[in-house]
Fold this protein.
Amino acid sequence: MTSSPAKRDLMVLGIETSCDETAVAIVGGDRRVHANVVLSQIADHQPYGGVVPEIAARAHLAHLDGLIRRALTDAGVGFDDVHAVAATAGPGLIGGVLVGAMTGKAIALARDLPFLAVNHLEGHALTARLSDDVAYPYLLLLVSGGHCQLLAVAGLGDYRLLGTTIDDAVGEAFDKVAKMLDLGYPGGPAVERAAATGDPLAIDLPRPMRGRPGADFSFSGLKTAVRQRLSAAENPHDPAWRADLAASFQAAVADCLVDRTARAITRFSAEYGAGKALVVAGGVAANASLRARLSDLAAAEGMAWVAPAPALCTDNAAMIAWAGLERFAAGQRDGLDFAPRPRWPLDMTSAGAS
Ligand code: KG4
Ligand code: ZN
C-alpha cells in the first residue's frame, strides 16, 4: 500500500472479546456497518448468575474464528479489502482480552495489515460518531457493567473525566438488584422488564450523592437499601410488590444520573460552550426509561441529545472497528508487541479510573 485512502474509503475489521460477548464487525469510514455479528455467551454463564472469566475466555477462543469468517461473508469482502485490524486490548477480563488481541495481531501479521489496540471504553465513547456523526466536543455519560463516568470528549484521544462512581458501577447495581429479585442474568434488561408494570413512586429509596458538589456517583447505598426493603417486606414474593421495587430502583437510578449529569453539564458548558451534545453510551444506555429521563434533561439544558441504538450501546465490535478506524485515519498504529491491559483509564490524567 503506497498512498493511503481517504477516511471515507477505509474499511476496518474490529474484534471485541473483553467480557461475555464475542463480536466481530466490519465498518467503513463512510460510517457504514458492513457486518456486525455478536455472539452472546448468556447461556454459558446463566447457571452461575454472572460472568465466569475462565468460561468466557474459552468461549471466545472456541467461536472467534467462525465469527470472523461470518463477518467477512456478511460484508461480502475478504481480508484484502480491509485496511486495518482493530481489537479490544483492555480494559476487561484479561483472558478474553488476550484471545481477541492475539487473534487481531495474528491476522495483522499474516495479512500484512496495520494493527490497532483499542481501549474498550474509547469504543463506547466514540460510538455516537459512528451512529450520528457527532462533532467534538461532547459530554459523554458512559454507563456500563464496569463503569459509570461523565467525560468531556474534546477530541480523538482527548478525554477528561468529570465524574465517576466512588463504589459500584451502575450496571453492576442493576445486576445485583436483579439477583436479589431472582430475575436472573443479565440483570439490566430483566430489571427493566420487571419495572415496566411497577409503580416507581411506591417504595422509598435513597438517591446517593444527589445535590452534592461535583459529578461523582455512588450506588452501593441504593443497592443496600433495596436489600433492606426486601428483607423487611411483609410479602416479598408478591409479583406486584416486586415490580414496584424494580420500578422504584430504576427511578432512583434515573434521579441520580440526571442530578449528576446536570452538574457535569454546568462544568462542561462553562469550558466548551453551551448547546453541545449530551451523549450516552454503554450497556445501561439501552434502558428506555433512563434514556427518556436523560433526553428530557438534554432538552431542558438546551443540548442536543444523542443515544445510539441499543444494539450499539451494549458490547459490540462495530464500536471497536470504528474507534480503530478513527485512530488509523489519524495516522496512529500500534505495534504487535502491545501488551493488553486489564485496567486502562480513558482519562490517563485521572488516578484510579479504570
Ligand atoms: O457495555 P456493556 O454491554 O458491557 C460492559 O462493558 O460492561 O454493559 C453491560 C451492563 C450490564 O450490567 C447490564 O445489566 C447492563 O449493561 N444493561 C442494562 C440494560 N441492558 C444492559 N441495564 C439497564 N437496563 C438495560 N436495558
Ligand atoms: Zn462495554
Remarks:
- The domain at 7-128+312-329 is CATH 3.30.420.40 (Nucleotidyltransferase; domain 5).
- The chain has two domains: 7-128+312-329, 136-308.
- Residues 194 and 237 are 13 Å apart (CA to CA).
- The mean pLDDT is 95.
